[in-house]
Each structure stands twice: as structure tokens, then as C-alpha cells.
């Protein structure tokens, strides 16, 4: 009986000890200890070290351990220090090291709205009920606030979105030694966001003396969604915020456009300069065998609506067609010309003559901006350019399209590679945005360089035709606005450096491309002859150039130089009007 009684007593005692131990283990679930050391560098960068100890926290971390870094708009809610709400507060972090129980572990920083969330260790694996100690080291840019002669650090150390209780939290702020201690002002706070989850009687808050001179505060018994925050201010002049700090941390992406610029520069030096023009001597005849459209192609390197207008004028002068103009529309009628006249036409003129009247003896041309007219007029211009390029391209120009194509290819490959590897708050659309901005930017830039700028120049000079340019200008403006919007989105989601990289790629390609084209020695010689002939046309009585099938005038009275005057931009009325009428029909440049 005594042995049985003793055994029962020992069993009960052991049970009580186990229950006490179990009760002790369950009395403090969650974060048992939290400490954040924030070091302010003279360049306004913050270096943060966080130490977090958890115990019996499996119910709080069912999908793995997560730390919400205190950089989101929710955690930086106090408008007295950080201003009003912004979609992107501009703060950027870089994770330096993460350890668990003294061992390095993998981690993953979220994106978009979960940018502040740091997942540590295995994801979607419930944290066990044991004790763990995590150490997180990271840097923070653009968290400092400056103004009114004082610099401010507002740091909401633990964060307001946490649902885990904290037994003890310590926040230490380390300022540069030069900052005078007597001029430092500190406002500590324990509580939730705004007036929610205010400080309660069980919460304690005290300042802790620190031998290093750091500003240290300690809080205990913090409930879920309560945090320990400090607002520390001191006189300006001790922290120097670089205006281009983003280049120091993210400027590596600008190496790619710098290398592209160097590539084009080396190519430009290797190609050598364009042949120098000779002294321009007035000529009374166009260069032999050079049609009006060919003269424009050789002189400017482009084929556009003015080239088309010159071809129509040439067909009218040669007696192949009759042209009637009526309120912006042009009625073209096929005439029965002799074979000798048609045989004297240039290849592009013969081709357009057949193309115009392939469906009947009459055709009406209009510059209306609808899809049908744009396609029809663009077809004529494209065929003229193809004929001219086949006849004259290799003879009068030295092409370097391979160098340009390689530069554009390198642009897309390097930009897309950097987009795939991009880090930031939101990189989900980095690849699509990169493709869209580069493709549309290069396309629009070439259209403006080779066509639209000269069209507006002619419209301003002639004082007419600018109304027809407004729809195209509006379209360009819309696309430009979309590009700017996407660049701002990239700057916000990825980095300002990445956005500047895309702009640099566009400017370098559009800037160098036209400068790599060269005229051959023969092309330079003929260009000088064309310039001399143009000089002669400018001195001719322009009234003679205003007669295109006027009532009561014979066909032979038409000035045979009218097509050249249109092509070389000497004729400022009919040629300008017709070329601007067909502006939507495309401009093709020499490659």
C-alpha cells in the first residue's frame, strides 16, 4: 500500500510539473523578442539589422515565416512626417543577408502590392512550434525626409499589419557622430495605425541608455497590429542626400546604352566622313537621266508624297494624263499619248502610270485619312521607292543598314535581358513594356525624322496644308503620351534607371542611324548638280510654275520643269498641297 501510494504521489507530481512546463510554453506564443538597429549614413542611406525571436508561433505562420518590412504606405502612415498618400512612396530596399538560427537561408522579396513582404525559408510550409531566431540585414534608399532646415527619420519598426503579439521590442537609431545630441528631437510611440489599436495599460515604453550614443527605446507586451515607432529630427547639414543616388545603386543598367553608343561611334569612325560637296554652280538643265522623283531621292534620300506629286506632274507634262483639282481632290484622266512620250518616262513613272489606271481610264485621288485612302496612296509611294531603290540605291548611296540592324538587334536583346532580370516593386510588365516602348518609339521616331518634321516645315513655309497634318499630329501625340506613361510606370515599378535606359536606347538609335548613311562619290557629284539646278529653278519666274492645265491653255505650254520644282521644294503651292494631301500615304527613307 505504501509503495502504491508513493507511486501515485510521484505520478501526480510529474503530471503537475509537465502541466506547468506546458503552461509556461504556451503563455508566450508569437514573437518573444524583436530588435531593429537603424543606422543613418551621411549619404542618407539606411542600413537596417533586425533580430526576431519566435516561439510557439506555428499558428501565426501557417505558410512559412514572413516579415513585412516597414516600408509600405500602410506602415509609413503618419502624414506629419511622410506627407500625403502616394501610389509609390519611392522607397527601395536591397536585402543583404538573411539567417535562421545562425545559418543562411533563402528568401524572396514580394512584388507589386506585396513588395514589402519578405518570405524566409520554405514557402507554404507551416513554421514548427519550436524556437527560432531570424536576422535580416538590408539597406533602404529614399526613406529620409528633408525640409524646413531639419532632417527627419520616421521609422515604424515592427509594422502595423502584423497579427502576432510581441513580448519585447527594441528600436535603436544610430546617427552620424557629427550630429549634436542636444539638437536631436525624438517622438516615440506605441500603438496601431492612426487611432486604431491605441496604447493600452499593459503596454510599456521606456528609453534605454546606450553607451554608443544611439537613441534606443524599449516596449513590452505589444498586441497584434501595434508597433513601436520613432520620429527623430535634427538640423540639416549633416546628411547629404545625393540627387542621383539611384544611379549609384541602379545605374548599372545604363552600361548597355553606353556600349551601344560606343558601337555606333566606332562604326561612324570606321565608315568615314561623307564626301564633301563642291562649289554649287547654277545649271540650266537637270542631270542627264535623272527624273524628278529620282532627283528628290538622291538629294534627300527619301520618297514621300512630294515624290508622288512630282511623278503626277511629270505624267501631265509629258501628255500622258490630265489633272483636274477640286476641293482637295484630284481627278486624273488617261490621255492617248504617243509611244515616244511613254518611252521617255522613267521606270517609276511608267509603273505608276500603269498602276493608276489599272481599273479604268479615270481615277480620283484624295488625301482623306481613312484606311482605304491611306493604303492606296501608300501603295503608290512604296512602289515609287522600290523602283528608285532598285535603280539608284547602290549606285548613289553607300548602305550601312547591316550596322544599324545589328545595333537595333543588340538594343532589343540587351533590354529584354535586363527586363527579365529586373528587380523592384513591380516587374510583372517589364518585358511587355520594354518591347512596346522600344518598338513604338523607334517606329515613331523614324517617321518623324524622315517625314513628319519636313512636312510641318513645308506647311509652315507655305502657310497651307497644316490642317491635314493635325490628325497625324494627334495620333503621334497619343502614342507619345502612352510611351511617357509606360516609362513612368517602369520608373515606379522597377527603377528610374531602367526607364532612363529605355529612353537612352531610343535616342542613341534614332540619333546615330541617319548619321551612318553616306553618298557614294557619284552620288555626291550628282547631288551637287541637282543643287545647281535647284538654284536655277529658284530664280525662274514662279508664275510660270503655277500653270497646270489652266483653262484655255495648250498642253505644250506647261513648264517642263514643274515636276522638278515640286520634287526639289521650289514650287510652294500645288506641289505642297498635293504632297501634304498624300502625307498619310507613307514616307520611305533610304536604308
Structure description:
The chain has about 600 residues and is α+β, with helices and mostly antiparallel strands. It folds into three domains: about 30-240, tricorn interacting facor f3 domain (Immunoglobulin-like); about 245-260 and about 400-515, no CATH class; about 275-400 and about 515-590, no CATH class. Helices cover about 40% and strands about 20% of the residues. It has 16 helices and 22 strands. The protein has helices spanning about 1-25, 80, 245-250, 255-270, 290-300, 305-315, 340-345, 345-355, 370-395, 400-420, 430-460, 465-495, 495-510, 520-540, 560-565, 575-580; strands spanning about 30-40, 45-55, 65-70, 90-100, 105, 105-110, 115-120, 130-140, 145, 150-155, 165-175, 185-190, 205-210, 215-220, 225-235, 300-305, 320-325, 330-335, 360-365, 395-400, 520, 590. The strands form six sheets. The chain has an eight-stranded mixed sheet with strand order 5-4-8-2-1-11-14-13, with no helix packed on it. A four-stranded antiparallel sheet has the order 9-10-15-12, with no helix packed on it. The chain has a three-stranded antiparallel sheet with strand order 3-7-6, with no helix packed on it. α10 packs across α11 (about 430-460). The longest helix has about 35 residues, at about 430-460.
